[in-house]
User: Fold these one by one.
Assistant:
Number 1:
Amino acid sequence: MSSTTDASTGRAQIAARTLRTDRWWLPPLANAVGLAAWVAYATVRAFMQDYYYVPEYGYLTPFYSPCVSTGCVPEASHFGQILPDVWWLPYAAISLPFLLLFRLTCYYYRKAYYRAFWLSPPACAVAEPHKKYSGETRFPLIMQNLHRYFFYIAGLITLINLYDAIEAFFKPGGGFGLGLGNIILLVNVVLLFAYTLSCHSCRSGVGGRINHFSRHPVRYKMWTFVTKLNTRHMQFAWATLASLAITDFYIMAVSAGWITDLRIVG
Amino acid sequence: MSESTGSVRADVTQGAAPHTGEAHTDENIEQHDYDVVVIGAGGAGLRAAIEARLQGKRTAIISKSLFGKAHTVMAEGGCAASMGNANPNDNWQVHYRDTMRGGKFLNNWRMAELHAKEAPDRVWELETYGALFDRLPDGTISQRNFGGHTYPRLAHVGDRTGLELIRTLQQKVVSLQQEDFKATGDYESHIRVFHECTITELFKTRQEGDSTAKIAGCFGYFRDNGRFVRFDAPAIVLATGGVGKSYSVTSNSWEYTGDGHALALRAGATLINMEFLQFHPTGMVWPPSVKGILVTESVRGDGGVLRNSDGKRFMFEYVPDVFKDQYATTEEEGDRWYEDADNNRRPPELLPRDEVARAINSEVKAGRGSPHGGVFLDIASRLKPEQILKRLPSMHHQFKELADVDITKEPMEVGPTCHYVMGGVEVDPDTAMSIVPGLFAAGEVAGGMHGSNRLGGNSLSDLLVFGRRSGLHAAQYVDSLGAAPAIAEADVSAALDRALLPFSTATDGGENPFQVQQELQKTMHELVGIIRKEDEMEMALKKLEDIATRTRTVSVSGHREFNPGWHLALDLRNMLLVSLCVGKAALERQESRGGHTRDDFPVMDSDWRHLLLVCSALGEDNVELTRKEQIAMRPELFDLFELDELKKYYTGEELGGHRADHGSAGEGAS
Amino acid sequence: MAESTSHLHHFKVWRGDDEKGEIVDYPVEVNEGEVVLDIIHRLQATEANDLAVRWNCKAGKCGSCSAEINGRPSLMCMTRMNTFADDEPVTVTPLRTFPVIRDLVTDVSFNYTKAREIPSFEPPKDLAPGEYRMQQVDVERSQEFRKCIECFLCQNTCHVVRDHEENKENFAGPRYLMRIAELDMHPLDAADRQLDAQDEHGLGMCNITKCCTEVCPEHIKITDNALIPMKERVVDRKYDPLVWLGSKIFKRSGA
């Protein structure tokens, strides 16, 4: 029983855990389903160790970038091969954990999963089921404060994704190429940048932490820009989940030969 | 009286002294002992309390609602102070002149002088308390233009300046409490807020020999649990705001029942200028939830027009002769003015406030009003939706959020709304003390400062300047006293009895206070409203006599915890007393000036300028009116004006002292 | 303007005190254009003369009439009746996080206690009144937070205290954490507030689930603009060795 329905505190005695009459349970449910589905898909793909590269056009899925396992096809390994090829180690094991941690500690995702999975709270003014609550003051949740480090690393990885997207315009066999896959890769990278730059830690770092914007006009401009992006951080968070899955699925489908890439040039 | 903080008297909570022979001997009265008690926690009250505490006095703040909810938050425009940030030509003399002109020279000129001189310091002081006003590019406080002010003068924060003011003062009180906590271990050792507490009576010492009766304390109840409380204090500052709730349409909140005005009267103090009430011509009349809330004048300035139920732009019928040359006679010409103001005359919707209000009043009385007793203010058919959204975003928002009315699609219903009372407790301009020793008043409850009409922006500066002065002089008064004045226990019993009267068997069969209140509001609204006539006011006074009887016998049922009926029953007698003052003074003053418009005496009369109408109480529900001469303005202040201007307001013999008479050119006046 | 219409609406109002209470059914007349507070006042003037309710400005500017309407923390004066279907019952209950006094009135002293625990604005020592110079861009962030009308809906909704009475002691609540952010971002405030925000006022308890922002009638972005930036400033000081190191070096070179 939470304090909301507890009579001993002098509060109005109302037995119901909430009197909300709207479908308050729908958003957390939708979030839970969406996040779980994505994680399931991503897990399967990360360990699949196949269909991650399209040799004809140089498409590398972001789920395998950078491809640094000795199991990677050499053309896909733009940054060397340093990891052993074992079944339990994803080929991009050097980047995936940090991307996961970046999103896990993201201020938006925190809200989403605290509500959807932890039910803390499930929705506003709906009592949560936990007896005790200490928020982000203790281990492990105090680690959420490390968000900015994962942001720095995620920024680097997004640069690698950008490299991949540009590299894909130059066919491994030589010559410029442009197909639907290139466009998908590019859109994905743009969205990844939007999501990464709209991060709350980024907003604080570029200017939020200073008190005299007027003395730092450039940082103020950067802060203003990031602030604009930041208001859409949630949208970018979901858009990138979608774009990552779509990009990966498209490359998997082309790579597996289920479909052929729609070519525009070359 | 204690001067050092170490020797303060302790709060005592105990049963009241025995009321032998009284029916309520079991009634426990909480008792507190303070140096200064401030009644009212709006801008003036908080500023007074801060000052009293800074002077080392143990201070109580009494608030009818929660701490920080005062009506001051409704002030939008700004706080007038001649800081000269936006225009370096501004100075206190210009502000002084503007204020006197606005008040039609009926102002207490010394108050206007102090106000103009001290306002900048009071605003700057707020910044040291943490206020964040809007800024100019050079980093100083931004100042905006407002009606009647020669230069941009109003310090502001968007359109929520009142909120900024109240929050800043509230936070300053908290900061003083934190200092006291560091020194004494008790946040409330020197300044304490008693919220949701209503004061029903002031106590004075009994008159002995030739000593005058002085303030000794006050009595009230806590709204939440109905417990009674008495404060023993040698100095009381009234800062209770205005009287708007005596009218059925008002921009004022429920608290504005004229408590301070009535408390002062019953304690033997006097009120002046009670005939002057500011009505805003366009308040919302519909929907009911927002009745009375202001609709800014810029709606008309941007092209909004007033129509009656026939769809007619009636303002063309109401252009007085003196304005005939300045205002358009056809709709076509009026419409052209918005585009080309130089070659066309302005539309009559932009006549002065009282003219517009008078016209709306006449249309409604002639049966051509809107369904809810106003007229239509139409901007939807005049501007494109995107223009309305761009020029009047806050109005669009206000109607959309509060009323679900889309002003880009439908007309608003508007009518005059009671906004501000210029009249109030007659005080010494320098000390803010009334004629009762120990009783001070500041802010809207004090009279004189604004004369017959207040300029926008002058209320926030008024409450800061005189709030501080009242707190300062209350502290000095306490220092000058010898022994602490004692409350007569019999007075406490009487106050207790009176407070419980609505529950007693003596009122069995009495009316529901809500009904009596409605009747009172209707009477004042219809008969002593914006346009006044002798016969109507006489009728109003007759009705008030009847309402007085009914007020004494209103009855309420139930418990004392947060019982709105009981609260109203007690507030009602304040509203009645104040209404009597307004009615009698309005009947007496046979001219039109500022916030007092007589249909039967439509022009301003210099012979009335120097006369003040002073109200004093005759018992609980009657008042007496006397005339009093204004003190003549100090010569150097008088000389700030040109003789030509003064001639419009002053009688010939009053102009004798002007510099023009002595042949000197003088300086300063422009 | 449409013809005004009225209908009978099913209201359910919590009546009671700190010992017991129940939801009481009232059929009550509702007219076009009214808000929930109007209906409560109608009940007061008719069949429930002693129904306790706290209100003041009726214009969404004072923040007095906070309550829970169909379970959602709201201002009664800002909740229009036409947002409900004619046959949809309207349940009005007091704020559930604070002790109830009677009916819809709660004891909100928790908030005033917390307000006193936040150190006040500390004016710069070297500036006299009238000498303050601040740029608009430097005051705008704090100005947003100063729009707060102190309705305490955020304090009421925040699950940290709503669902865990025991946290009240160590958690200032969104309104007062926002107050810390307001002062911390004030260009002239001389106090150091970041460590205390975490250590004394419970910023770490906030799990940024944003209900404070959702219920704010002033539409202040409490979470995004106050709480998260404040958390980041705390990280600068407590959890970021790089920034810490940088500040040490900077201080040394500046000395």
Number 2:
Amino acid sequence: MPMVLLEGQKPGAWQLLKNGIFSENPVFRLALSLCPAVAVTTTVANGWILGVAVLLVQVLSSGTVALTRQWILPQVRIPVYTIIIAVWVSAIDMTLAAFAPALYAQVGLYVKLIVAFAIIISRLEVFASRYPLVPSLWDATGMGLGFLLALLTIGAMREVLGNGSLAGIRLLPGKPLLFFALPAGGFFSIALLMALFNKLERMAATRHGRPAAPRAAAGGSHG
Amino acid sequence: MSATRPLILSPGPHLHSVESTSRIMWWVNGSLAPAVAWGAFVFGPRVLLTILGSIAGAVVAESLAARMLRRPASVGDGSAVCTGLLLSLTLPPLVPWWIAFLGGAFGILLGKMIFGGLGFNLFNPAMVGRAFLMASFPLPMTAGWAAPRPWFGAPLDAVTTPTPLTTLREHGLSAAMQSLSGHGGPWNSLLMGFRSGSIGEVSMVLIALGAAVMLVRGIIRLTIPLSVMAGLAAVTAFSGAPGLHLLSGGLWLGAFYIATDYVTSPSTQGGRIAFGLLVGVLTGVIRMFGGYPEGICYAVLLGNAMVPAFNLWFRPHRRVLAGSPS
């Protein structure tokens, strides 16, 4: 169930974290940033690095916007957000290049692309620009963790099925289904995990006695 | 007991004919029997295991999915058997049975049942399964071409020969014709089916026989197959080998059996012509300029993606008679 926040309401930290990880999971629920979710998730390790980088950029950008929001003119807010994100991405990009060159050689291209990730600017637009620093940081942490969780599960599924290993540890002798290591298999993996995510959330909702979210067009209109 | 019955509103069509889905599907399956028998003769009885594996994968996937979705079992309508059979006939003869099983299961699960079952799928399930196998098992799917056995004498065991289209692609027309020169000449090899290729594609005569049965029964019309062939002929006309292109590869199997699938082809005559031409042109483009010697599978899948657009662009127009209210 997506969280509905009323104007002026103070959401709690736990509520915000849960919202980002489950109810409004960036990949499985909001379906944002699917492009990197397909591109980097051939292995768990790649998903982990990019997920952590996105978490950092999200927290730093949301914090910056929450602090400076009263000086950002609404008419030019999108370019300003982009510049803020670009600043933090550049900082992380240079830090990685300086301190972890081997890692940087693998994921450097994708780290630069974080500037264009839809999930980051969308959280600035819908949350950090309207809330003070502390809730904005919790929201950013929740969203970043939700994205990281999604990348890890997609990466695990694709690494096991496509490469026969998990987090670099070989489980099966060959490559069982190469298809899942290819981009087309990435889309299929995301769709299957999204279905599983919906199923689990519906089961959890029923167990807590809440009515399950209405299924679209279930059963049709008989009478 | 209340006397009121629920008013059931259902979408059209409301016209019924004696033909049912299962009757049509079993006729299609039956008309493929000669091609199956020929495949088993010319490539050895081992291919029957591949065919059964593919059908089993499709049937198991369909019944499991129906059970998970709490739907009535739909295996009996023969469409899953048809998917598995068609998929297996497009596989190289040396593909192991478990790969065929995976292909059939994947095609049915993620090509058909996930969209809601028969009638709701966008893409031909058999070709979804084949594309999945091409991506997952590139080596067996492109190298498992058994050599055909002769009419008389011992079968050639474990000998592989590239298909005529592969030879044409890599060594040119004369080499391709050279590879077909046994068994009473190239045209005889192509028409009768003494050549390497997919299990069910090699014999033009027997595919034409099955297609004739379907045409006589009114199951398919010639619109789509002829358009596919016209499209391919147009692209390959100046390649120097249009005859080989038209009589080779899975073209006939694809044109008569795969492109004509009711669910994944347009529902108006104009749309069918456009769809068939697109599939034919794409097949030729993939064969001549793409990365694979045979292109009918991807051509059909790409054509399937265009079917909703063709249905929109080639809608039947209501005739407005003079004096009738507009």
